[in-house]
Amino acid sequence: DISLSPRVSSLKPSKTIAITDQATALVQAGVPVIRLAAGEPDFDTPAVIAEAGMKAIRDGYTKYTPNAGTLELRSAICHKLKEENGISYTPDQILVSNGAKQSLLQAVLAVCSPGDEADYAGTIGHHSPVQLISTYGITYILQVIIPAPFWVSYTEMARLADATPVILPTHISEDFLLDPKILESKLSEKSRLLVIGTPSNPAGTVYPRKLLEQIAQIVAAHLRLLVLSDEIYEHIIYAPAIHTSFASLPGMWERTLTVNGFSKAFAMTGWRLGYLAGPKHFVSACGKIQSQATSGACSISQKAAVAALGLGYAGGEAVAAMVKAFKERRDYLVQTFGELEGVKISEPQGAFYLFLDFSSYYGTEAEGFGLIKDSSSLCRYLLDKAQVAVVPGDAFGDDTCIRISYAASLSTIQAATDSIKKAMTALK
Ligand code: PLP
């Protein structure tokens, strides 16, 4: 009997990765599966960025970099955050990591841990999180508040930090936007971190500034609460939606850990580069974790990232061309699925996913397959019958829906949509 840490036993493996792997295995076995499960742009990294990476190799820029990232890149990130997001940071308030995933995990690990309420009740009254940690050495408030549908890793990161994920439901009829009243009702002394992803994965929800201001008011009244703002899809947004950085709201700079990265907007998933920006106290704590776990991110990728930020406001024309293609696909999907009976749709305002409510089909049967009872059986059915790989909503905390990634060419999406519609109409 080889025993494992309880930390691992309670952890769920990423379903999006599992389904993508399953679909890839089917393709390798000769089954013509259309893969719409992955969260990865189908475009190549823009040539100028790739060339900067190649130049770094040719120049022998292949050694360790500082743990926090090169000063050149951190300065470029500060410039970007100021110009595009209206938030002021200095390079020592930036930590560059191997992907936004690492940035998020380190942030959760740095501020959450198990704890006993009795340990802090009464002692910490009205101090800010910074004072709490620096004065009392207390780093363990217990809950990570996560609106659903959520990106699969938020809940598991909370579990890795021995904290409790607390899920706040939202509804498709309200475009999956968080109701501030529900937030307020769930917050307590134990609430440590509120995770906001905008634009969101899996629903493409973009939080309007007004709603973020309402949330900020609630956060301001809960002094121990920090906000982890995941802005990785910020550039993949469809007018008239506008991205607002939580840290730019009045009073929220001190309370926000902003995460962003290069994977999505710049089609740089394999380069593994993301970053955290926030008050130095927290960023240094995350840096400490990183220094013992992975050290500075890839030197070559950092040179490429400097070139990416050099493309201009919001990634310039190279990014605009990708966003235009994503928008065409979104429009096609929304229109086509809108014609299918019994489907509920909230038009995504950003990212490259459609989160469709197919729950009116639950309880139906497919010949030779059996009962469709939930999002998982529906996705298995679609893989089997339509040969399209999509992700069940239960992976994102909402079993009524499935997630279709439209990071694929329009013709691939058209073929997949035809197949899915045919498979759905065969259900009785
Ligand atoms: N945040 C969200 C919402 C994501 O969808 C992803 C990637 O799928 C990430 C963060 C992590 O991105 P990366 O680690 O590639 O920078």
Automatic annotation (TrEMBL):
Family matches, as Pfam families: Aminotran_1_2
MF-aspect GO terms: pyridoxal phosphate binding; transaminase activity
Superkingdom of the organism of origin: Eukaryota
Transmembrane feature ranges: none
Protein's GO biological process: amino acid metabolic process
CDD domains per record: AAT_like
Domain Aminotransferase class I/classII large: 32-412
InterPro entries: Aminotransferase_I/II_large, AspAT/PAT-like, NHTrfase_class1_PyrdxlP-BS, PyrdxlP-dep_Trfase, PyrdxlP-dep_Trfase_major, PyrdxlP-dep_Trfase_small
Entry's family note: Belongs to the class-I pyridoxal-phosphate-dependent aminotransferase family.
Name of the protein this chain belongs to: Aminotransferase class I/classII large domain-containing protein
Source species: Rhododendron griersonianum
